[in-house]
Amino acid sequence: MSQQVEERAGAAVGIRRLTYSDLPQVGAVERRSFVTPWSLAMFVLELSKPSSVCLAATTGDELAGYVVCSRYEDVWHIMNIAVNPARRRSGVATALMSRLFEETLETLDRYTLEVRVSNGAAIEMYESLGFKQAGVRRRYYHDNGEDALIMWLEERPRTSA
What we know:
This protein is an alpha+beta fold. It is built from four helices and eight strands. It has an eight-stranded mixed β-sheet with strand order 1-2-3-4-5-6-8-7, sandwiched between helices.
């Protein structure tokens, strides 16, 4: 099932489940987004888990972004989210997160994630969705020893029907 979301720039962004056939484009976005990108095997593992929700944002045939989220005992952990650099700051990540909340509506409403302390744009987006800063993981990122900010959303905001 695909869902169309109007992007701030005016172009429609489709949100659907991520598939194995998306992985070449996922890898390209991943390498442009992160100093230490996930390997193809890491994405394959998450896609194969029944406890994961993996979503793609697309514009036409182009992958605009993706989110990978895994369910643990009593919390959803946002493992990876990235947007094609050419599409950033246009609502793609927010659309992905909103759809993720919809996909997990009937289960848990607690979420956690780690984000680089230097990634102000991502922190701002997470806070706009209701995430709160909950601590720091010192030297979490192996590439440069940067700290990770731990963020939690204890109860997802409900939309009125």
